[in-house]
Amino acid sequence: MSLEEIQRLAWEGFRNRVREAVGSSPLFAEKVRQHCGMLPDCTRMVDPARLPVWTKDDLRQWYATAPVPPVPGAWVHATGGTSGMPCRFYVTRESYEWRMAVSDRGYRWAGAEEGVRSVYVWGAPAARLSPAVRFRRALINRIQNRWFYNAMVLDAERCEACVDLINRVRPAALVGYAGCLVTLADHVVSHPGCLTHRVRSIITAAEGIDGNQVARLSAALGGMVYQSYGSREFMLIGMECRAHGGYHLSSDNLLVEVVDEAGRPCVEQAGRILVTDLHNAATPFIRYETGDVGVMSAEPCPCGLPFPLLRRVDGRVQDLLTLPGGKQVSALLLPHVMKEHRWVNAYQLEVMEDDPSRWILNVMSDTDVTEAARIALVANMHRWVGETVAINLRRVDRLVRAPNGKTPVVVRERRIVERIK
Q: pLDDT (tens digit, 9 = 90+) per residue, 289-344?
């Protein structure tokens, strides 16, 4: 199938999704009507640029009023929000199957598809799982030939345990959060001889890394590095191929746009990334703003794959937090935990560079927060970072914004930011 054929099917899928959402979601229909002055004619192709952008605030408002479930068989997913804004949404079986298939296809380009022996340097579920669920997941992982290592907190001891797992399993591929893999690579470099097995390929997820970090990963752990771009709302959005010129977009599953401030398409220049899920009838993910900034390529990739190319994604580098004693924790821990606490609308962590034992966790909520809920959140955080960090949970009505206009999840130097509503 050619790029033109895939894009034609994507436009048809977009029109169908708009028609379904207008008919099933009064909130979405009203937002479209206010923006356009009328509802679109879905008997013909619909120009995405004429429709409004769907924001995380829109999604939260929709979820609060949506039928349960919106369509038969749909179930709830949650994202902790790497932008500091947790959200909940529904997923259908069709959408889930598409997500899994697209992810496996992208990982196949890196030699890490289902069945290939792989080690995942990943995060464990924030919520405690029942024995039955743990058994089921372990069985599926073995069938898929995948081993998982919880790397949310990494110190020398845990890095050594992860290296031991790699040496024992001898995987062909290594998959993990980018920051965690860089920490692991630095450990291997500083402990010569500890890693006796080198993988063929490395897939980084959740965060962006620069060329220097790519070289460090390849030199320390072995194999070619492939960067992926995804989100909890959609799973894999884009994946590098062997040409490493950007992310091939899964446009048979998702319609991805890069737009300017007015919502109009822009090519070869930085713009806001919007995503439409073409197969999830349960949630109106139509021109949904991910919070990321990217650059769409005007030229096809020389590799020959029939998918559009997102040249780069900006602003996806996450912080590493240092705990007392030198342990490091990925800031991805925050969305990982926050998605389990439904009363949190937005959050931001303040840390003091000269005192890693004190954190201030600012949260926003539009509901009355009980003391039990506050205690549960702090206890969940302590479960991951230990009791050596004093966490002061503070409810606020505004967060802080950096000079570039973004609201960072982690604030280190408050003198360079301004308070906003």
A: 998 889 999 999 999 999 999 999 875 555 678 888 777 777 778 887 888 888 88
Place of tokens 């009203």: 30
Class at the top of the CATH hierarchy for domain 341-419: alpha beta
Q: What is the 3-state secondary structure (H, E, C) of 54-84?
A: ECHHHHHHHHHHCCCCCCCCCEEEEECCCCC
**This prediction's pTM:** 0.80
Per the CB < 8 A criterion, the answer to whether 116 and 172 are in contact is yes
Burial class, 97, CB count within 10 angstroms (exposed 0-12 / middle 13-18 / buried 19+)? exposed
pLDDT tens profile 4-52: 899 999 999 999 999 999 999 999 999 999 999 999 999 899 999 999 9
By residue count, the chain amounts to 421
Contact 208, 178 (CB under 8 A): yes
In angstroms, the CA 157 to CA 91 distance is: 38
Instruction: Place 178 in a pLDDT band, splitting at 50, 70 and 90.
Output: confident
Q: How far apart are CA 258 and CA 266, in angstroms?
A: 6
343 φ, ψ (degrees, to nearest 5):
-80, -10
Is-contact 241 248, C-beta < 8 A?
yes
Which amino acid type is present at position 23? G
Residues 6+ apart with CB under 8 A from 275: 231, 233, 234, 237, 254, 255, 256, 257, 285, 287, 288, 290
